[in-house]
Amino acid sequence: xxxxxxxxxxxxxxxxxxxxxxxxxxxxxxxxxxxxxxxxxxxxxxxxxxxxxxxxxxxxxxxxxxxxxxxxxxxxxxxxxxxxxxxxxxxxxxxxxxxxxxxxxxxxxxxxxxxxxxxxxxxxxxxxxxxxxxxxxxxxxxxxxxxxxxxxxxxxxxxxxxxxxxxxxxxxxxxxxxxxxxxxxxxxxxxxxxxxxxxxxxxxxxxxxxxxxxxxxxxxxxxxxxxxxxxxxxxxxxxxxxxxxxxxxxxxxxxxxxxxxxxxxxxxxxxxxxxxxxxxxxxxxxxxxxxxxxxxxxxxxxxxxxxxxxxxxxxxxxxxxxxxxxxxxxxxxxxxxxxxxxxxxxxxxxxxxxxxxxxxxxxxxxxxxxxxxxxxxxxxxxxxxxxxxxxxxxxxxxxxxxxxxxxxxxxxxxxxxxxxxxxxxxxxxxxxxxxxxxxxxxxxxxxxxxxxxxxxxxxxxxxxxxxxxxxxxxxxxxxxxxxxxx
Length: 486
Fold this sequence. Notes:
It is an enzyme of class 2 (transferase). Could be a virulence factor. This protein is α+β, with helices and mostly antiparallel strands. The protein has three domains: about 1-60; about 70-95 and about 115-305, Endonuclease, Chain A (2-Layer Sandwich), CATH 3.30.870.10; about 320-485, Endonuclease Chain A (Endonuclease, Chain A, 2-Layer Sandwich), CATH 3.30.870.10. It is built from 19 helices and 15 strands. The protein has helices at about 1-30, 35-45, 50-60, 80-85, 90-100, 100-110, 130-140, 160-170, 195-200, 250, 270-285, 320-330, 350-360, 375-380, 385-390, 425-430, 440-455, 460-465, 470-480, and strands at about 120-125, 145-150, 175-180, 205, 230, 235-240, 260-265, 305-315, 335-340, 365-370, 395-400, 405-410, 415-420, 430-440, 460. The strands form two sheets. Strands 8-14-13-12-9-10-11-15 form an eight-stranded mixed β-sheet, with helices on both faces. A seven-stranded mixed β-sheet has the order 1-7-6-5-2-3-4, sandwiched between helices. Helix 13 links the parallel strand 9 and strand 10.
């Protein structure tokens, strides 16, 4: 047998390469929904025999086949279920208050998300780390039954240790506590905070931390970027803020990074809990059941503001949900689109939607940081600015420290906030959570916040952008080619 292999190894290798390449190419052609992705992978497989098929096996196949809790009603029973259903926003309510175009947005959300647009919510913006961390720690200190926390980064620094102490104290009071940290984000601190939590009796797990065939590569890019805390099923905190002292002026001084987080109550809390509970069950195998995790009826009045929908997205059955919502929102805008994003790398479809809105006469303002914590991402996103500046959009570089906020406001009526950046990672690879909000008061306050940022920002001009040295512009374009994995 060995002699046969030695004599015919080139032929055997050719046959293996042919079979592997054909199988991988067929799989890519049959499963990829975007023609560019399918063509790209087939090209790599054909031009790099065996190696290309191996790369596709590691990085090209979406192995996320998980069951999700498709609706918060899966967690409710009896009378509570009816009470939650009574708080769903109706088509008539949305049409009366916000017009037919936002009723169309409701229809879109009903069809592409797993959660309802609900009335009877409250939402409070927490403008910086000190305000957000203080409010979260206060709520944790008052918890009576349950706390579930999911985050991308949970640093083992001074802020992180405050959360550890608060969570351990809750466990000692008899509160059921679950903490889920992304497997990649958990490694931002060395050693990680996991050991401290476990030593204190906190039940903790990592998202996507399993080793597959000795490799983490197939899952390294599939991260939970969600930031959610739900306490006693009554109050939740979500937005863009990780747990780290870089966002605290108390510890980082005037150089601290800026972010915006949100405190919510009402029926949307049940949806945020359902999203986090599904992630916990996927990671740990534990279904959160029993009295500690029972969701109390929301103390809300049907039909009253604020109208909110929780929007979960990720590389499973929720793939590109956030992308679809953004496309819909840009298409219904009539007067203004204001966007704040630290990493602004929209795909061709989103760029087309934005410039089409601008050509219709919609004022499109995009605010990005002057100081960015990810220099390569900043260079890559600058490579796309000309596509929007040529088509009536305005781009602003915000002054001051790095701003990690993800905010969007349209026509003083509709807003979108949460964990999603407008980049390929958030739109296709990460598990994200955002909130779609219909409320005049909240959205107009958000617009004033964005306008204040613009008032001290520097406008990016097309002439200045194109007159920079060619080597810099070339470097930006090269980095832009790799933007899906930055």
